[in-house]
Amino acid sequence: EQNIGTQVDFDQRKLAYETSKTNYLTSKSKFAQIKTQLENEFEKAKVNYNLTEKIQNDYRITSEVNGKLYDVLKEKGELVTPQTPLAVIGELNNFLLELEVDENDIIKISIGQLAIITMDSYKGDALEAIVTKIYPIMNESSRTFKIEASFVHPPKKLFPNLTVEANIVIQTKKNVLTIPKEYLIDEKYVLINKTEKHEVKIGLRDYQKLEIVQGLSKDDKIYLPK
User: Fold this and answer.
1) How many CB atoms lie within 10 A of CB 125?
2) Among the residues of 7-91, which ranges form H helices?
3) pTM above 0.70, yes or no
4) Which tens digit of pLDDT belongs to each residue from 75-114?
5) Which residues, including other chains, have CB under 8 Å from residue 88's CB and lie 6 or more apart?
6) Measured between alpha carbons, how far apart are the two ends of the chain, in Å?
7) Most buried of the four, 110, 166, 201, 209, by CB within 10 Å?
8) How far from 104 is each of 96, 98, 144, CA to CA, in Å?
9) If we measure between CA atoms, which residue out of 99, 101, 97, 205 comes closest to residue 143?
10) DSSP code of 186?
Protein backbone atom coordinates (compact mmCIF):
# COMPACT_ATOMS: atom_id res chain seq x y z
CA GLU A 1 0.00 0.00 0.00
CA GLN A 2 2.92 2.34 0.70
CA ASN A 3 4.80 1.17 -2.43
CA ILE A 4 7.72 -0.07 -0.30
CA GLY A 5 9.66 -2.82 -2.04
CA THR A 6 8.99 -4.44 -5.35
CA GLN A 7 6.08 -6.63 -6.41
CA VAL A 8 8.52 -9.51 -6.90
CA ASP A 9 9.72 -9.29 -3.29
CA PHE A 10 6.10 -9.16 -2.14
CA ASP A 11 5.14 -12.21 -4.16
CA GLN A 12 8.16 -14.14 -2.84
CA ARG A 13 7.32 -13.25 0.74
CA LYS A 14 3.68 -14.17 0.18
CA LEU A 15 4.64 -17.50 -1.36
CA ALA A 16 6.99 -18.24 1.55
CA TYR A 17 4.18 -17.39 3.98
CA GLU A 18 1.67 -19.63 2.21
CA THR A 19 4.23 -22.45 2.06
CA SER A 20 5.04 -22.03 5.75
CA LYS A 21 1.31 -21.99 6.61
CA THR A 22 0.72 -25.13 4.59
CA ASN A 23 3.68 -26.86 6.29
CA TYR A 24 2.37 -25.78 9.69
CA LEU A 25 -1.11 -27.15 9.04
CA THR A 26 0.36 -30.37 7.62
CA SER A 27 2.60 -30.79 10.66
CA LYS A 28 -0.32 -30.07 12.98
CA SER A 29 -2.40 -32.72 11.23
CA LYS A 30 0.47 -35.22 11.39
CA PHE A 31 0.93 -34.40 15.08
CA ALA A 32 -2.74 -35.13 15.81
CA GLN A 33 -2.56 -38.32 13.77
CA ILE A 34 0.62 -39.50 15.51
CA LYS A 35 -0.83 -38.56 18.89
CA THR A 36 -3.95 -40.65 18.22
CA GLN A 37 -1.79 -43.50 16.97
CA LEU A 38 0.42 -43.37 20.06
CA GLU A 39 -2.59 -43.26 22.35
CA ASN A 40 -4.01 -46.34 20.63
CA GLU A 41 -0.67 -48.11 20.87
CA PHE A 42 -0.44 -47.14 24.54
CA GLU A 43 -3.88 -48.61 25.25
CA LYS A 44 -2.94 -51.75 23.33
CA ALA A 45 0.35 -52.03 25.21
CA LYS A 46 -1.50 -51.56 28.51
CA VAL A 47 -3.91 -54.36 27.62
CA ASN A 48 -0.99 -56.62 26.65
CA TYR A 49 0.78 -55.74 29.90
CA ASN A 50 -2.26 -56.59 32.00
CA LEU A 51 -2.73 -59.81 30.05
CA THR A 52 0.93 -60.75 30.48
CA GLU A 53 0.76 -59.95 34.20
CA LYS A 54 -2.36 -62.13 34.52
CA ILE A 55 -0.63 -64.97 32.67
CA GLN A 56 2.41 -64.62 34.94
CA ASN A 57 0.11 -64.87 37.95
CA ASP A 58 -1.32 -68.06 36.46
CA TYR A 59 2.17 -69.56 36.55
CA ARG A 60 2.82 -68.45 40.12
CA ILE A 61 2.21 -71.51 42.32
CA THR A 62 0.24 -70.80 45.48
CA SER A 63 -1.58 -73.07 47.88
CA GLU A 64 -5.17 -72.52 48.89
CA VAL A 65 -4.44 -73.82 52.40
CA ASN A 66 -1.74 -73.20 54.96
CA GLY A 67 0.34 -76.24 55.79
CA LYS A 68 3.60 -78.10 55.45
CA LEU A 69 5.15 -79.05 52.10
CA TYR A 70 5.69 -82.81 52.34
CA ASP A 71 6.79 -83.60 48.80
CA VAL A 72 7.50 -81.96 45.42
CA LEU A 73 6.37 -84.22 42.59
CA LYS A 74 8.11 -82.48 39.66
CA GLU A 75 11.70 -81.59 38.81
CA LYS A 76 12.88 -78.20 37.53
CA GLY A 77 12.36 -77.95 33.78
CA GLU A 78 9.56 -80.52 33.53
CA LEU A 79 6.48 -79.58 31.52
CA VAL A 80 3.30 -79.36 33.58
CA THR A 81 -0.34 -78.53 32.92
CA PRO A 82 -3.08 -77.09 35.16
CA GLN A 83 -4.20 -80.68 35.83
CA THR A 84 -0.72 -81.89 36.86
CA PRO A 85 -0.18 -82.51 40.62
CA LEU A 86 2.93 -80.59 41.68
CA ALA A 87 3.28 -81.15 45.40
CA VAL A 88 1.83 -82.72 48.53
CA ILE A 89 0.76 -80.17 51.15
CA GLY A 90 -0.98 -80.97 54.41
CA GLU A 91 -1.79 -79.60 57.80
CA LEU A 92 0.98 -80.25 60.26
CA ASN A 93 -1.17 -81.22 63.25
CA ASN A 94 -4.36 -82.50 61.67
CA PHE A 95 -4.07 -85.99 60.17
CA LEU A 96 -6.92 -87.98 58.66
CA LEU A 97 -7.27 -91.74 59.00
CA GLU A 98 -8.35 -93.61 55.88
CA LEU A 99 -9.66 -97.09 56.66
CA GLU A 100 -10.97 -99.90 54.49
CA VAL A 101 -13.97 -101.92 55.66
CA ASP A 102 -14.99 -105.23 54.12
CA GLU A 103 -18.34 -105.28 52.32
CA ASN A 104 -19.64 -107.84 54.86
CA ASP A 105 -19.11 -105.38 57.71
CA ILE A 106 -19.97 -101.99 56.19
CA ILE A 107 -23.64 -102.14 57.25
CA LYS A 108 -22.47 -102.22 60.87
CA ILE A 109 -20.53 -98.95 60.56
CA SER A 110 -22.01 -95.56 61.49
CA ILE A 111 -20.60 -92.05 61.79
CA GLY A 112 -19.56 -91.29 65.37
CA GLN A 113 -18.49 -94.84 66.27
CA LEU A 114 -15.33 -95.31 68.29
CA ALA A 115 -12.33 -96.94 66.60
CA ILE A 116 -9.32 -98.34 68.44
CA ILE A 117 -6.21 -97.64 66.38
CA THR A 118 -2.88 -99.49 66.48
CA MET A 119 0.18 -98.40 64.50
CA ASP A 120 3.53 -99.99 63.74
CA SER A 121 5.14 -96.65 64.62
CA TYR A 122 3.61 -96.76 68.11
CA LYS A 123 3.76 -100.41 69.04
CA GLY A 124 1.88 -101.26 72.20
CA ASP A 125 -0.24 -98.12 72.14
CA ALA A 126 -4.01 -98.14 71.54
CA LEU A 127 -5.23 -94.81 70.19
CA GLU A 128 -8.83 -93.69 69.96
CA ALA A 129 -10.49 -92.24 66.86
CA ILE A 130 -14.01 -91.36 65.76
CA VAL A 131 -15.57 -92.35 62.42
CA THR A 132 -16.31 -89.10 60.54
CA LYS A 133 -17.18 -90.13 56.98
CA ILE A 134 -18.35 -93.20 55.07
CA TYR A 135 -17.89 -93.32 51.30
CA PRO A 136 -21.03 -94.85 49.77
CA ILE A 137 -19.37 -96.64 46.82
CA MET A 138 -17.42 -99.89 47.00
CA ASN A 139 -13.97 -100.45 45.55
CA GLU A 140 -14.69 -103.33 43.20
CA SER A 141 -11.10 -104.58 43.08
CA SER A 142 -10.73 -104.96 46.85
CA ARG A 143 -14.45 -105.34 47.69
CA THR A 144 -14.05 -102.78 50.46
CA PHE A 145 -15.54 -99.42 51.43
CA LYS A 146 -13.40 -96.44 52.41
CA ILE A 147 -14.20 -94.60 55.61
CA GLU A 148 -12.50 -91.70 57.36
CA ALA A 149 -11.79 -91.21 61.04
CA SER A 150 -10.13 -88.54 63.19
CA PHE A 151 -7.93 -89.04 66.24
CA VAL A 152 -9.44 -88.13 69.60
CA HIS A 153 -5.96 -87.43 70.97
CA PRO A 154 -3.37 -87.75 68.19
CA PRO A 155 0.19 -88.88 69.04
CA LYS A 156 2.88 -86.24 69.30
CA LYS A 157 4.51 -87.01 65.95
CA LEU A 158 2.87 -88.29 62.77
CA PHE A 159 3.83 -88.62 59.12
CA PRO A 160 1.71 -89.11 55.97
CA ASN A 161 1.03 -92.64 54.69
CA LEU A 162 1.77 -94.45 57.95
CA THR A 163 0.00 -97.80 58.23
CA VAL A 164 -2.74 -98.30 60.80
CA GLU A 165 -5.06 -101.07 61.89
CA ALA A 166 -8.42 -100.20 63.34
CA ASN A 167 -11.01 -102.08 65.37
CA ILE A 168 -14.31 -100.21 65.13
CA VAL A 169 -16.53 -100.70 68.15
CA ILE A 170 -20.01 -101.63 66.89
CA GLN A 171 -21.32 -103.05 70.19
CA THR A 172 -20.09 -103.36 73.75
CA LYS A 173 -20.68 -106.00 76.42
CA LYS A 174 -19.29 -106.45 79.89
CA ASN A 175 -17.95 -109.64 81.47
CA VAL A 176 -17.86 -111.69 78.27
CA LEU A 177 -15.98 -114.93 77.65
CA THR A 178 -13.63 -114.75 74.63
CA ILE A 179 -11.22 -117.09 72.88
CA PRO A 180 -8.59 -116.44 70.19
CA LYS A 181 -10.17 -116.92 66.75
CA GLU A 182 -7.58 -119.54 65.70
CA TYR A 183 -9.07 -121.94 68.27
CA LEU A 184 -12.42 -122.08 66.43
CA ILE A 185 -13.06 -124.97 64.02
CA ASP A 186 -15.66 -124.76 61.22
CA GLU A 187 -17.21 -121.70 62.83
CA LYS A 188 -18.84 -123.72 65.66
CA TYR A 189 -16.41 -126.16 67.33
CA VAL A 190 -13.48 -126.05 69.76
CA LEU A 191 -11.19 -128.85 70.88
CA ILE A 192 -11.41 -130.20 74.39
CA ASN A 193 -9.32 -133.12 75.65
CA LYS A 194 -6.97 -132.30 72.71
CA THR A 195 -8.97 -134.28 70.13
CA GLU A 196 -12.66 -134.06 71.03
CA LYS A 197 -14.77 -131.44 69.20
CA HIS A 198 -17.16 -129.46 71.34
CA GLU A 199 -19.88 -127.24 69.83
CA VAL A 200 -20.09 -123.61 70.91
CA LYS A 201 -22.18 -120.59 69.96
CA ILE A 202 -20.37 -117.45 68.80
CA GLY A 203 -21.42 -113.85 69.54
CA LEU A 204 -19.37 -110.73 68.86
CA ARG A 205 -16.00 -111.01 67.15
CA ASP A 206 -13.09 -109.02 65.81
CA TYR A 207 -9.99 -110.01 63.90
CA GLN A 208 -8.37 -111.56 66.96
CA LYS A 209 -10.99 -112.76 69.42
CA LEU A 210 -14.44 -114.37 69.50
CA GLU A 211 -17.18 -114.10 72.10
CA ILE A 212 -18.46 -117.45 73.41
CA VAL A 213 -22.17 -117.11 74.10
CA GLN A 214 -22.88 -120.75 74.87
CA GLY A 215 -20.96 -124.03 75.21
CA LEU A 216 -17.96 -123.04 77.38
CA SER A 217 -17.26 -121.64 80.82
CA LYS A 218 -14.26 -119.70 82.02
CA ASP A 219 -12.88 -122.83 83.69
CA ASP A 220 -12.94 -125.03 80.55
CA LYS A 221 -9.67 -125.83 78.84
CA ILE A 222 -9.46 -125.80 75.03
CA TYR A 223 -6.67 -126.71 72.65
CA LEU A 224 -5.26 -125.16 69.49
CA PRO A 225 -6.12 -127.27 66.40
CA LYS A 226 -3.17 -128.62 64.43
Assistant:
1) 10
2) 7-58
3) no
4) 989 988 888 999 999 887 788 999 999 999 999 999 999 9
5) 69, 70, 71, 73, 160
6) 144
7) 166
8) 24, 18, 9
9) 101
10) T
